[in-house]
Amino acid sequence: MKKVLKIITGGVLAVVLFAEPAMLMAQDATSAKNSNTINAMEVCSQAQQDVQSDINKTLWLAIGFFGGILGIAAAYIVEPSPPASRLLGKSPEYVATYTDCYKDAGKKIQANAAIKGCVIGALVYAVTYGCCVLLNVGVAGAGAAAASQQ
Amino acid sequence: MLRIRNMIFYFLFSFWLSGTFTKFYASSISHDTVSGSFYKCQKGAMSYVVEKPINQIITYSYDTMIVYYPKRKKAFKIKSQEDVLQKNNSFTDLKSYINNLRNAGYIFLKKQKKGDTITSYWSHEKQKIILKLAYDQKGRIYEVNVKTEGGKYLYTMKAEDYITLQDSVFFPKKLITTTQNDTEIFVFDSISIVPFDSLPSFIKNPVIPDNASVQLKGFSEQ
Fold first, then answer.
1. pLDDT in tens, B19-58
2. Residues of chain B positioned with their CB less than 8 A from the CB of A113
3. Is the ipTM of this complex over 0.85?
4. Which chain A residues are within 8 Å of B177, Cβ to Cβ?
5. How many Cβ pairs closer than 8 A exist between chain A and B?
6. Is the pTM of this model over 0.95?
7. DSSP assignment of A62-77
8. What is the distance between the alpha carbons of residues A91 and A54, in angstroms, rounded to a whole number?
9. Residue A83, class by beta-carbon neighbours within 10 Å (0-12 exposed, 13-18 middle, 19+ buried)?
């Protein structure tokens, strides 16, 4: 009985002595891993929030208005980049996620503004063209009426 | 070839400022305090060597921002358009700042003088922006305020506690940038003019070592 107890105690001690450092090492590795991992969703929403205030929507509206389809294409091609101060002290994982989300969200905002500008431009053009046509028709009608009276 | 020309230009025609910095946010607790050293060419963008919370170097090479992690052998090359409005780039040199404004399409509107402070107003026709620039007679910029023509506030940059390094070479000890989202504060210390030779090698010549993995952002992968 004493022998069995000795074996059990020895076994437990061995497990405690050898397993604890291994467990501690595993814990260290996990915490190190956690400190490197980032909440991609959080980082992405931060980038989207930042780019919202950084991008000049009026400029892209004007580009869409005057540039039309070319303006919209430019909005998709030109990639906004985050300022250096936003990336200071951030991990590579953060920089990668933040930059990608910033560029994607920025392009969408630019494109939306350019599309709005393009639509407004097209409407203005259509209204102006319509007015010109109506004016011409009116002038031509008046001319024809005057000619028929003569 | 361009790199050599650039280095010669930096070496011959401009001086470098260096010092330590601490960056933190006033209103947000989710951001870490960042500290390290900065290097600024008289007419160029600011480069940073971050020591805490992570070892990192941020520098510029033409239209590219390089973010390099020496210990982790990782780097990012991010295509970057240096915007004249990108806050803390040319605030140390009023002439450069005004030249940058003109080159970027800003039109001078008016100038007001009140005591020692001169306030000039600029507008950008395409961007529909009104920029207010406040400086003193020595050319020290104190405030840059940017609003849309509709009155929507974009950002304010305030420079405080200037120190004089040389005749007409000034540097603020505090830079506060307020955007719609947050207030970012830079505190600079141990500021001095340094010779080109004493700069860290990566700042002098920002070339990513061959053994580092590089991720391109905004460039077509080759």
1. 999 998 887 665 678 999 999 876 667 889 999 899 999 9
2. none
3. no
4. 85
5. 79
6. no
7. HHHHHHTHHHHHHHHH
8. 22
9. buried
